[in-house]
Amino acid sequence: MHSFLKTISIVISACSVAACSSSNNGGVLPEVELDGVAPSSLGIEPPLNEDSIVNSNQDFIVNFDELLDENSLKNGLSFYSLKGRDIYSTIILGSSTRDPVVGDQRAFSYEVQNRLITVTEVIAEEEEQNEDDADSDEDNVVEKRVVERLATSVRVAAAERLALATSYAVEFDTTVKDVSLIESVGPNGQASTGNYLVEDIDFQFQTEDGAWLSAIPMNEFAHAGTNKSSAFSYIDVGDKGWVRWLQTEDIGGGVDQRIYSKEFDTTTGQFGNSVVRFDYIAALDTIRTGFEGNVTQYSSSRTGTTGSDLVCTVWVNLDVSVAPQARSLLSRCGDQGPRVVLKQIIGGAALSDFRLHHAKDATFLLSYIDNNILNVDVLELANDQLSLTGNQQFGSASDQIIATDLIQVPELDLGATLPFLSFVSELYNGGTVSGYEMSTMTYSAGTFSRESVYISVSSLSKAELGFDASGFGVAAWLEGASSSTRLKVSRFNGFRWNDPVTVNPSQGDITDKRLSVFQDGQSLFAWVEKGVSTSFIKSQGYFPIDGANAYSLVPVQTIDSLSGDYTGLQLSADREGNAHLAVSAQGSFLTTFRFLHNIEWNEAWSDAETITNNSKANVYEVEMIKKDGRSLMLYANEALSYDRFYAQPFSDFE
Question: What one-character-per-residue DSSP string does 479-508 give?
Fold first, then answer.
């Protein structure tokens, strides 16, 4: 009796099917065989190992040793971010399998190409031996032949630029199979045909990090006098974006406040040559009276979460052409669209907390506080112009709105409506303040709804909220009177907000704080804590420990300290959980700290990197150019009697 052992070595052909003949020896390529061998990977191009660092635009080709069933690739191929689920360990590529959550999945495209591979088959006849003389067994070579056959290569590319300093995996799971006609049972127990992968195949890699590049002056046209820059912002619109700000100028003895804009190319990392005035464009805005040079605030939002190139901006202009003075709300969509007057508000105090939010499709929501009443205007976009279609008001004499903030929401279609606005109100009883309430606002199907988050008997300020890709939330706020203010945090479990936890309750007065919520539910916050003679920058967050699904508050880290006061604090995180913390101290410095998500918590914060030692520097914003981690830091250096305003990119641009 004989058994046969077939040994096959495989070499990838250097050409695709379209470029090769059907066979080197003139034969016909074999049809699909009734084989019982599971497909396997021949490797990935470029080659990857645990030390591989790739650029953020890298795509990959995975080669297999036979034809794959293309339908099985639709559900069996995934691209996801590798996230550490234990804050006490550093992520090591290839060390273990990590089950991704919905927030880790990344959009991608793939292309299937069938290629010729050369297979050398050495068929040996092996005599069956008894155990006693097994050592004397020798193979008798019967046949050795070179054949060609079709095999599948899969080119995989992320739909968007990969994030900086992040670990990723491309995975083929066990639902991927070959095209063999052999009857089989699928991984879910269903009757099928074909041979399935024996185990998941994944290729892990890491992207390179960026660096702070040279600072670029924005308002180089400014001159001595009353010039001052404020209200800095950045808005991203695909392959370009705009830095915008308010510029107060001394014009011929009078003072104007105008919106200026400078274009930024996100593919090259370069700014345009000219600064453009935005609130008045002479070629478009022929009527000037009452609508020029008195801008008090503005807000911008784009018409979609990704890929849209239309930005709408709404601003408040103090109209001096009527008595009493009116505040006009104007808008412009795009950088050359017509200026539109939305409404006028006659008399009254200045508007505050002016925020534009894109709700869905063609609907925008504009929120602002007018005399302690929260107004939300419904704006509809048509023909690249906004028009006012509705207004809702919240608040009363006993429920006076004092502050609002847009809620951080993930750029994912959750299939559910999340709140878009948080706000704080002073509660009055008989003309006396009786407490403070933090609430959220939701807009769905034309209806607004308000939900209370927390009520405090002491002062409540600087409330920030965010939601992850599963609809869970985190809230952080300051509570208490001056000199005894505490940072409190609460989590939303999908049904209710948990009782708040006080962070560092026995330490000094907390004067400022920032919150970032990641798509997978982890969150990071930083704050300024003032002691008797020393101020501290500290950080904490909600992270999983030992892979648990429940997130816990991790130990507080002290990042920086000084004898004096911090004047600026900004925290900005990308979608993968890497972050920048920028701090400034009047008369001292502007520095940044880098937080890397997949590093053990006690080592996750970098040392300080000095941006400038100018004694007048003050950081205003750290804006993400993209959710991939490229950033712009916007700050001012007060030179002579006017501000010099700078934008400084963080990127992997050359």
Answer: ESSTTS-EEEEEEE-SS-BPPPEEESTTS-
Tokens 């006028």 sit on residue = 344
Q: What is the mean pLDDT of residues 431-437?
A: 92
User: Residue 551, class by beta-carbon neighbours within 10 Å (0-12 exposed, 13-18 middle, 19+ buried)?
Assistant: buried
43-77 residue pLDDT tens: 999 988 767 889 888 899 999 999 999 999 999 99
Residue of 458, 426, 452 lying closest to 439 (CA atoms): 452
Q: What is the 3-state secondary structure (H, E, C) of 440-477?
A: EEEEECCEEEEEEEEEECCCEEEEEEEECCCCCEEEEE
266's tokens: 């996100």
- Distance between CA atoms of 452 and 441, rounded to whole angstroms? 9
Cβ contacts of residue 537 below 8 Å, gap of 6+? 526, 527, 528, 529, 558, 559, 560, 561, 566, 569, 581, 583, 593
Closest residue by Cα to residue 82 from 104, 60, 56: 104
Amino acid code (one letter) for 232:
F
Residue 70: its pLDDT value, please?
93
Closest CA to 318 of 385, 386, 246: 246
For tokens 């003075």, what's the residue?
325
- What dotted CATH number matches 2-207? 2.60.40.1220
Q: Which residue has the higher pLDDT, 138 or 251?
A: 251
CA distances from residue 453 to 180, 463, 499 in whole angstroms, order as listed: 58, 11, 10
Of 429, 439, 436, nearest in space to 404 by CA: 439
Q: Could you give the C-alpha distances from 26 to 8, 147, 380, in angstroms and in order?
A: 21, 11, 67
Contact 184, 195 (CB under 8 A): yes
Alpha carbons within 13 angstroms on the beta-carbon side of residue 433 total 14
Tokens read off for 466: 């965010």
- Global pTM reads 0.85
- Highest-confidence segment of 135-149, 289-303, 350-364, 404-418: 350-364
Give the residue, 341 or 33, on which the prediction is more confident.
341
H/E element holding 74? helix 70-76
- Cα gap 180→200, rounded to integer Å: 19
